[in-house]
C-alpha cells in the first residue's frame, strides 16, 4: 500500500519542506512508495506572495546575495546539508542588486523543481490547484483532506500545513471604518497584500491617508507613483499628474530603517552570548507564563548590546575609553539596564557610538514640531541621516546588531508566541526597505506627493470624512475621503478567511494568546487544547507560534525556518517509514 503525505501550501515554506524530505529520505524512508500531494491554488514554488505575475516595480527588500533557499553548516539540524545557489548566483546578477519579485518568483519555482527532482524515484508528486477546506479523520487513522470543487477527499497518512500569508476578516475597528466608508461614499482599503489591492479608487490629486510605514507602504508608494507614469530624474521626482497625495503615519511615525549598504569584514561577534540555548532552557523550565517584557527583553537587549560593542571595541578602539577585555568583563557582570548604561557612558565617549534601543524604536518620542512644514523638513533630515549611517562602514556596529537580531530570533523561536511587538521591532530594524527606496521617498516628499503625519497617528471617522492627526504636530490634522491600511492582515486563526484554518479553530485546536496555532516545538505537530501533539498533523509558518522571520534567509545565519523544516521532514519520514514497516510485517 502506497503511503500518502498532503502538504497544504506549495509556496516557499512548502518547497523548503520538500527539499528536506528529499535530503532525509535516503536515511529515513525505504517504503514501497509515497504519494506527495501539494494543495495550493497558486503555482508551486513562489506561491501567492512571490508569484511571477506581479508588477516589476515591486522589489525584494534584501540584496540578491542575501537570499537563499538552501541549507549550510550553520543550520542546527540532524539532516544532511544540501547546498545550492543564492538568488544572485542563480540569476547571474550583481549580489548587491535588489531584485524584483518576479525574479525571486522564478528562483523559487526553480528551487521547487530541483527539490522535486531530488526526491527518490518511489515518490510521486501531484499538484492540486485548489483550496483545502478542512481536514478530518481520527488521531490513529488516515486523514481526509477536503478540497474545494472536489467531491472526494485526499486520503493522507500525514498532513502538513505550510500556509503563508492569508486574508483575514476585519477586526472591530476595521469593520467600523469600512461601514463608515460605505455610508459616506468613501474609500477604505483594509490590511492586504498590496499587489492584490485594487488601487484604482485612489483618485489623482486627491489626499489619501495611509496608516503603516513598513514594506506594504513602500509597495503602495511604488505602485501609485512610478506605477502611474511618474519617473525619477536623479534625486528629483517628475510627477505624471495621476498620483494621489499620500499622507502617511504610523505608531513610530517613521519608515523602517534602511537596509545596510556595506559588507561585513573581519571577525563576527561570538553569538549567542547572553541569549542562547541555556537561557532559553531556563525560561522554558519556569513555572507560569513567560512575560516578554520582564523575562525576555532584558536578555535580548544585553545580547544586542554585546554584538554592538564587540564590533565597536575590536574594530574602532580609538572611539572607546577602555580595553575590550575590561569592558567585556564588566558588561557580563551587569544585569541592570541603568548600570549598563552607566558603564557604556564611561567607556564610549560619543553618544552616536552607543546602542540606545529605546531611541531606535521610537525616534519621535517626545518631539513636537510647531508646524506641519517644519515636521516635513525634520523627518526628511531623519531619513537622510539614517541613509547616511546605514551606508557608512564606520558605523559597522549597526551591522553587528543586525547579526545579533538574527541570532536572537533563532533562539526566541523556541519560546513560541511571545507577542507581535518583537516581530514588529525585528522587521523595523532588520527588514527595512532598500536604500534606493528611501531616496525615492525623499524625492516624493520634496515633490509634495508624499506628506508625513507623525507618530501615534490617530484616525477618526467624522464629518463625512476620515481625519488623521498626530501629537508630533499638535493642532494639525488632515482630512481625506480615502484611507489605506498599509500592512498585512494579522495571522490569527480565528479571523483567518482560509476555510481550513477556520475549521481547525472550530474543531478546538490549541491557540496561543495571540491567536496562533500552537505547535510542538520539537517537530511542528499541531497541539490540541490539552497540549497533546497530533500524531498525523503538522504546521509550519506565520500562522503558528513557531513562526520565523521568513521561509528563506541570508546564507550562513542558521536559518531557523530551515531547522524547523528539517525536524518536521524527519518526523514525517520516520512516521511513514514505521507505517510501511508495519504494513510489510
Q: Secondary-structure blueprint of this entry?
A:
Layout (H helix, E strand, L loop, with lengths): L2 E6 L3 H17 L5 E6 L47 H5 L9 H17 L5 E6 L3 E5 L6 E5 L6 E3 L1 E4 L10 H13 L2 E3 L17 E5 L3 H10 L6 E3 L2 E3 L6 E5 L27 H8 L7 H24 L8 H10 L3 H11 L9 H5 L10 H19 L6 H16 L7 H11 L4 H13 L2 E5 L3 E5 L2 E5 L7 E4 L1 E4 L13 H9 L17 E3 L5 E7 L20 H25 L1
Parallel strand pairs: 1-2, 1-7, 2-3, 7-19, 8-17, 9-12, 9-17, 12-13
Antiparallel strand pairs: 4-5, 5-6, 10-11, 14-15, 15-16, 18-19
Helix pairs in contact: 1-3, 1-16, 7-12, 11-14
From the alpha carbons, calculate the radius of gyration and give it in angstroms: 25 Å
Briefly note the CATH topology name of the largest domain. Answer: FAD/NAD(P)-binding domain
Strand content: 5-15%
CATH architecture of the largest domain: 3-Layer(bba) Sandwich
**What's the name of the CATH homologous superfamily of the largest domain?**
FAD/NAD(P)-binding domain
Quantity of strands, as a count = 19
Give the class-level CATH name of the largest domain.
Alpha Beta
Amino acid at each position: 500500500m502506497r503511503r500518502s503525505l498532503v502538504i497544504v501550501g506549495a509556496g516557499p515554506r512548502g518547497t523548503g519542506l520538500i527539499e528536506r524530505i528529499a535530503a532525509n529520505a535516503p536515511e529515513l524512508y525505504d517504503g514501497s512508495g509515497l504519494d506527495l500531494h501539494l494543495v495550493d491554488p497558486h503555482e508551486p514554488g513562489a506561491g501567492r506572495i512571490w508569484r511571477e505575475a506581479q508588477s516589476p516595480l515591486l522589489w525584494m527588500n534584501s540584496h540578491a546575495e542575501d537570499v537563499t533557499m538552501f541549507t549550510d553548516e550553520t543550520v542546527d539540524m540532524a539532516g544532511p546539508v544540501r547546498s545550492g545557489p543564492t538568488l544572485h548566483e542563480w540569476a547571474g546578477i550583481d549580489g548587491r542588486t535588489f531584485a524584483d519579485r518576479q525574479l525571486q518568483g522564478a528562483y523559487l519555482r526553480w528551487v521547487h523543481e530541483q527539490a522535486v527532482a531530488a526526491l527518490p524515484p518511489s515518490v510521486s508528486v501531484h499538484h492540486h490547484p485548489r483550496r483545502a477546506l478542512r481536514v478530518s479523520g481520527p488521531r490513529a487513522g488516515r486523514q481526509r483532506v477536503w478540497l474545494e470543487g472536489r467531491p472526494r477527499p485526499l486520503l493522507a497518512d500525514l498532513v502538513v500545513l505550510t500556509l503563508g500569508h492569508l486574508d483575514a476578516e476585519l477586526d472591530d475597528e476595521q469593520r467600523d471604518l469600512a461601514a463608515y466608508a460605505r455610508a459616506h461614499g468613501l474609500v477604505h482599503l483594509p490590511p492586504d497584500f498590496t499587489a492584490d489591492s485594487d488601487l484604482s479608487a485612489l483618485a489623482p490629486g486627491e489626499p489619501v491617508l495611509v496608516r503603516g510605514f513598513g514594506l506594504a507602504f513602500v509597495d503602495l508608494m511604488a505602485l501609485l507613483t512610478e506605477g502611474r507614469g511618474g519617473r525619477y530624474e536623479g534625486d528629483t521626482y517628475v510627477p505624471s499628474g495621476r498620483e494621489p497625495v499620500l499622507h502617511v503615519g504610523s505608531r513610530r511615525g517613521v519608515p523602517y530603517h534602511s537596509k545596510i549598504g556595506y559588507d561585513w569584514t573581519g571577525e563576527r561577534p561570538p553569538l549567542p552570548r547572553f541569549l542562547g540555548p541555556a537561557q532559553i532552557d531556563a525560561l522554558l523550565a519556569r513555572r507560569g507564563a513567560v512575560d516578554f517584557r520582564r523575562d525576555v527583553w532584558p536578555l535580548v537587549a544585553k545580547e544586542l548590546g554585546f554584538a554592538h560593542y564587540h564590533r565597536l571595541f575590536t574594530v574602532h578602539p580609538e572611539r572607546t575609553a577602555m580595553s575590550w577585555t575590561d569592558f567585556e568583563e564588566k558588561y557580563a557582570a551587569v544585569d541592570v539596564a541603568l548600570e549598563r548604561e552607566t558603564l557604556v557612558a564611561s567607556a564610549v565617549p560619543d553618544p552616536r557610538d552607543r546602542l540606545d534601543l529605546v531611541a531606535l524604536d521610537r525616534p519621535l518620542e517626545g518631539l513636537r514640531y510647531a508646524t506641519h512644514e517644519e515636521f516635513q523638513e525634520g523627518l526628511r533630515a531623519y531619513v537622510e541621516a539614517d541613509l547616511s549611517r546605514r551606508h557608512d562602514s564606520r558605523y559597522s556596529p549597526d551591522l553587528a546588531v543586525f547579526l545579533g537580531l538574527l541570532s536572537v530570533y533563532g533562539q526566541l523561536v523556541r519560546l513560541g508566541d511571545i507577542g507581535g511587538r518583537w516581530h514588529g521591532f525585528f522587521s523595523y530594524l532588520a527588514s527595512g526597505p532598500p536604500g534606493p527606496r528611501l531616496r525615492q521617498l525623499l524625492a516624493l516628499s520634496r515633490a509634495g506627493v508624499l506628506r508625513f503625519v507623525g507618530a501615534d497617528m490617530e484616525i477618526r471617522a467624522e464629518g463625512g470624512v476620515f481625519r488623521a492627526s498626530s501629537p508630533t504636530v499638535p493642532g494639525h490634522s488632515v482630512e481625506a475621503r480615502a484611507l489605506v491600511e498599509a500592512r498585512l492582515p494579522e495571522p490569527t486563526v480565528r479571523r483567518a478567511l482560509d476555510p481550513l484554518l477556520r475549521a481547525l479553530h472550530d474543531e478546538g485546536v490549541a491557540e496561543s494568546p495571540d491567536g496562533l496555532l500552537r505547535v510542538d516545538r520539537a517537530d511542528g505537530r499541531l497541539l490540541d487544547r490539552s497540549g497533546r501533539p497530533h500524531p498525523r498533523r503538522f504546521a509550519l509558518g506565520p500562522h503558528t507560534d513557531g513562526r520565523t522571520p521568513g521561509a528563506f534567509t541570508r546564507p550562513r545565519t542558521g536559518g531557523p525556518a530551515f531547522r524547523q523544516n528539517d525536524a518536521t521532514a524527519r518526523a514525517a519520514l520516520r512516521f511513514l517509514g514505521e507505517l510501511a514497516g508495519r504494513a510489510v510485517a
